[in-house]
Amino acid sequence: MEFFRIHRTIPFMRHALVLNLISLITFVAAVVFIVVRGFHLSIEFTGGTVMEVHYQQAVQVDDVRSSIQSLGYTDFQVQNFGTSQDIMIRLPSREGEDAGQQSEKVMQALQQAHPDAELRRVEFVGPQVGQELLHNGLMALLFVVCGILIYLGFRFEWKLALACAIANLHDVVIILGFFALFQWEFSLSVLAGVLAVLGYSVNESVVVMDRIRENFRKQRKMPVSEIIDLSITQNISRTIITHGSTQMMVMSMFFFGGPTLHNFSLALTIGIWFGIYSSVFVAAAIAMWLGIKREDLVKPVKKDDPSAELMG
Question: What architecture is domain 48-125?
Fold first, then answer.
């Protein structure tokens, strides 16, 4: 499907060096921010008090959030749990207060606004459990990366596979760099967003590389850089349709999904735009600099091959 067709090939690779220098600087800066500033981990990773509260009638999450903010909490999570009448609250640990004391104060504040609020469950999640969640999340990220590398290794010649892998790593590190720089809360939903971006970036890179391989077979005399430019130009319409429609959905989550989905959609937005950038400029340029050529993708036809005579 094409939104429009560009009849003139855009010379992307002419500016590959400058664009990849910008990309390299951004990547290094992201690594520095991750190492120096670290992440603002959510309660899911650091531990805290978890409460389940039931209301007789549907309640607005913002009302619950306002009641808890009146107690001086800033770093907490509130979300619906199953139905609009059930609320799950995650609170950070406070010195001198155990889970019971925290839940008692919170329930008093909630019942002032809604007397029908009823505490169903309260428990303390220790830092050890949070560290286990963080470890499992990082292991999931590692397994996804390894799976992607194995898939790319089977799908493409090693130069294209390596270029795709570097581009996907570039996207993930830059997302993490943004969260480290601005100290946005890093939660399980953000980790899910990073994993989603990985899959999304792989898809975009595979489409570009597939088109490059196809044009190597069609354009027998065209230089490598021009084949890459042609392939990217042919994919522009698809890229606009795919990423544009996805971005509209993500923006709806960002503006209307509430605080629970805010950082998740933020991670997706950063990943979508840098995914486009890396697929077009990083992956394709690295493949070109690695010396990708027609012989790597198109098997030479033997002179005594009967099929070659038929094609001739």
Answer: 2-Layer Sandwich (3.30)
Rounded CA gap, 175 and 171, in Å? 6
Kindly report the pTM of this predicted structure. Answer: 0.80
Q: What is the mean pLDDT of residues 136-156?
A: 80
Q: Where in the chain is the domain with CATH 1.20.1640.10?
A: 12-40+130-297
Q: List CB contacts of 17: < 8 A, sequence separation 6 or more.
A: 285
Confidence of residue 87 (pLDDT cuts 50, 70, 90): very high
Taking only the tens place, the pLDDT of each residue in 163-215 is 888 888 899 999 999 999 999 988 888 988 988 888 888 888 888 888 888 89
Name the residue among 168, 263, 174, 248 with its Cα closest to residue 208.
168
CA pair distance 85, 53, nearest whole angstrom: 8
Range(s) of the chain covered by CATH 3.30.70.100: 48-125
For the domain covering 12-40+130-297, report its CATH number: 1.20.1640.10
Q: Give the tokens for residue 175.
A: 């997302």
**What tokens does 257 get?**
């999904």
Separation between Cα atoms, residue 192 and residue 94, nearest integer Å: 28
- CA distances to 31, 136, 186, 230, 291 from 180, rounded to whole Å, are 9, 20, 9, 37, 35
Confidence of residue 9 (pLDDT cuts 50, 70, 90): confident
Separation between Cα atoms, residue 42 and residue 262, nearest integer Å: 13
Is residue 3 over pLDDT 90?
no
